[in-house]
Design a protein that fits this description.
The chain is α+β, with helices and mostly antiparallel strands and about 550 residues long. It is built from 20 helices and eight strands.
Length: about 550
C-alpha cells in the first residue's frame, strides 16, 4: 500500500523511507551530507558581511559590472576615495574641494560606499592574501563577486535570510604598490555560477528550483534573468535585491555533491564504490601479485618504461597499477610518492592507457607534471588546472597534440638490453651476498658493518685474536661476557700506579704464586728494617724521620 506523503508527518515519512532505502543509498546520502553544509555556518546560505572580508559595490550598476567582467572580459579597477583632512582653513578647504572634483570615479571604476581609503586598502589586501593562499595550496578560487541577493524566509520561523544568487570567480591583481587593485575573471574559470548551496537548500527544503542560468549571456541579459527570479520569489512571498558584493565563498565540494546527485545510478553500479560502501568485496588474490624480491623476474629491461629511478617497493606499486589493482600508497614526505606516480603514468602511456591524475593540492599536480616534462612526456599531458589555460587554449593544446608528429627515439639494441639484464643480475647478486649469513658466526656482512658503524666513536685497540675466522656464536658470547667482566676492573688496571702494570708473564700457576709470596714477605721485612734504621739515623742527626724512599735516599 502506498501512502500519500501529504497525509504523513515528516518524521513518519523519513521512518518509512529508511525501511525501504537500500544500504548503498543511505551510504551515498551520508556522503552527500558531508559534502554540503546547509547550516548557518555557510555564508552562501546565511550571508553575513564581515569588516575585513566583504565589499559592497555601489557604482557602476549591477548589469554594467556584469557585462564588463563576464561578457566583455575586461578588468575593473577600484576607485580610492581621497585622504580625509581635518581642521582645515577655508583656503585649504577650497583646495581640497577642487581635488575631490578631479578625483571623481570614472564610469568603469568600482566604488565601495562607506569606506575610506585606508579601510578599503586593508580589505583588498586581506582578500588578496587569503584568496591567493587558498589558490596556491588547493587550486581553488574562493574570491567571488556576487550579483544579487535572494531574500527568502525560513520554513519554520519565517525569519528573513539573505543568500547570494549569481557568483563569478575573480582574481585581485595590482600592477605596482602605488597602483590601485583591479578585478578580472580568470581565463580558466570564465562562467558565472548559480549559488549551488542555495539550489540544494531550495530543492531539499522547499522543493523548488531556480531558473537555470543562460548558456550564452549575449542572448539573455542579466536583467531578464533577474526578472524571472523575481517573479518566482514574489509568488513565494520573497524578494530579490540587486546588490553587488565581493567576498570569499568556498563551494568546491558542491561539485562532487552534484556529481553524486546527478549520476547516482551509475555510481551505485561501480564495483569500487560498492566496496567502499561495504556492500561488496573486490576480488583480491594476493598470491597472484608480486613481492619485492620477485619484481625483477616479471619486469625485464626490454619491457620496462619507467622514466625515473625506482626502488623495489615503488616498482611493486607500478606493477599493481598495471594489473588494474586498487591500492593506497602511504609514506612520509620525501619517500618518492610523486616519483612513483610519474612512473605509473609513464608506464600507462607506454601501454596505451590514459590516466586522470587528481589532487586536492595544486602543488602535487605541478610536481608530477614537472617530472614528466623533464622526462620528455609533456606532449602526452593535458593540464586542466593551470591558471594560464582557458577553454580555447585547452582545445588548441588537444589539436597540437593530435597534429604533432613525434620522432621516436632510438631504442637500445638487443645487446644493450642483454647487458642491462646482466648488470642488474650482478647488482642483485651483490645484495644477496651482502645479506647472506656466514658460517660459523651466522651473521651477514651487512649486520657486521652495521655493528661496526655503531662503534665508530669507540677507541680502536689493536689486538691479535687467533683463529678469528672460526669464531662460533657461543665463543663470541663468551668473549663478550669476558669483556663485560674486564670492564668492571679496567679503570683500576689502566692506572699508571697499578702494581702489575707491565707484567708480561704468559703463565701464572701455584708455584709462581708461592715463590712470589715469599719474595714479597722478604721484601716487606727488608723495608721495615730500612725504615727503623733510617729513623734512628735521622734522630741522631737531629732531623725528621723520612717517610718516603726519596727522603731515605736523600738522607743516605
Amino acid at each position: 500500500m502506498v501512502q500519500n506523503r501529504d497525509l504523513m508527518s515528516e518524521d513518519d515519512f523519513l521512518l518509512i523511507r529508511e525501511q525501504y532505502v537500500s544500504p548503498l543509498s543511505r551510504r551515498i546520502d551520508d556522503w552527500k551530507s558531508r559534502l554540503i553544509d546547509l547550516s548557518r555556518r555557510n555564508n552562501l546560505l546565511y550571508f553575513t558581511p564581515t569588516k575585513r572580508g566583504t565589499l559592497f559595490v555601489s557604482q557602476p550598476n549591477m548589469e554594467t559590472i556584469f557585462n564588463r567582467l563576464v561578457i566583455r572580459k575586461r578588468k575593473m579597477a577600484f576607485w580610492y576615495p581621497p585622504d580625509e583632512e581635518s581642521s582645515q582653513s577655508p583656503l585649504q578647504s577650497a583646495h581640497v574641494s577642487s581635488i575631490t572634483e578631479k578625483n571623481k570615479p570614472a564610469a568603469n571604476q568600482l566604488v565601495c560606499n562607506g569606506m575610506g581609503k585606508a579601510d578599503l586598502e586593508k580589505v583588498l589586501k586581506n582578500l588578496y592574501r587569503r584568496s591567493l593562499l587558498d589558490y596556491r595550496e588547493r587550486g581553488v578560487r574562493i574570491l567571488h563577486v556576487s550579483f544579487g541577493m535572494l531574500v527568502w524566509k525560513e520554513k519554520e520561523t519565517s525569519e528573513e535570510v539573505r543568500s547570494p544568487l549569481i557568483l563569478v570567480p575573480i582574481e585581485l591583481t595590482q600592477e605596482s604598490v602605488k597602483e590601485p587593485f583591479f578585478i578580472s575573471v580568470p581565463p580558466v574559470e570564465e562562467e558565472a555560477i548559480l549559488n549551488p548551496a542555495l539550489q540544494v537548500k531550495l530543492k531539499s527544503v522547499f522543493k523548488i528550483e531556480l531558473p537555470p542560468l543562460p548558456e550564452y549571456w549575449e542572448y539573455q541579459s542579466l536583467a531578464q534573468y533577474f526578472s524571472a527570479v523575481t517573479k518566482l520569489a514574489t509568488e513565494l512571498g520573497w524578494r530579490v535585491e540587486t546588490t553587488v558584493v565581493i567576498g570569499l565563498f568556498s563551494f568546491h565540494k558542491l561539485v562532487i555533491y552534484n556529481d553524486l546527485d546527478m549520476n547516482e545510478a551509475v555510481i551505485k553500479r561501480h564495483p569500487l564504490i560498492r566496496a567502499i560502501a561495504g556492500i561488496e568485496k573486490i576480488p583480491f588474490t594476493p598470491n597472484s601479485l608480486p613481492e619485492e624480491k620477485d619484481v625483477d623476474l616479471i619486469q625485464p629491461p626490454e619491457k620496462t618504461f619507467q622514466v625515473l629511478d625506482a626502488d623495489s617497493s615503488q616498482r611493486v606499486a607500478i606493477e599493481y597499477a598495471l594489473r588494474g589493482q586498487s591500492f593506497v600508497i602511504q609514506g612520509p614526505p620525501g619517500t618518492g610518492k610523486s616519483q612513483t606516480i610519474a612512473n605509473i603514468i609513464a608506464e600507462c602511456i607506454a601501454h596505451g592507457k590514459s590516466v586522470l591524475f587528481v589532487s586536492d593540492k595544486i602543488a602535487a599536480l605541478e610536481v608530477v607534471y614537472k617530472r614528466l616534462r623533464e622526462a620528455g612526456l609533456s606532449s602526452f599531458c593535458l593540464e586542466l588546472h593551470s591558471s594560464k589555460a582557458n577553454k580555447q587554449e585547452v582545445v588548441a593544446e588537444l589539436k597540437r597534440c593530435l597534429d604533432e608528429q613525434l620522432v621516436p627515439q632510438k631504442l637500445p639494441s638487443e645487446h644493450d638490453f642483454k647487458k642491462m639484464g646482466e648488470l642488474r643480475e650482478k647488482l642483485n647478486n651483490y645484495v644477496a651476498m651482502l645479506h647472506q649469513k656466514r658460517t660459523p658466526l651466522q651473521k651477514s656482512v651487512y649486520e657486521i658493518l652495521g655493528e661496526l658503524s655503531r662503534l665508530e666513536c669507540v677507541p680502536f685497540i689493536p689486538i691479535e685474536l687467533p683463529n678469528i675466522d672460526s669464531l662460533t656464536p657461543q665463543e663470541m658470547n663468551e668473549l663478550e661476557d669476558l669483556m663485560r667482566q674486564l670492564k668492571n676492573v679496567w679503570q683500576v688496571v689502566e692506572e699508571t700506579s697499578f702494581p702489575w702494570r707491565g707484567y708480561l708473564g704468559n703463565n701464572y700457576n701455584v708455584e709462581i704464586r708461592s715463590e712470589l709470596s715469599t719474595l714479597l714477605d722478604n721484601t716487606l721485612i727488608t723495608i721495615e728494617a730500612l725504615r727503623e734504621e733510617s729513623e734512628n739515623f735521622a734522630i741522631q742527626l737531629g732531623l725528621n724521620a723520612p717517610t718516603t724512599f726519596d727522603e731515605i735516599k736523600w738522607l743516605i
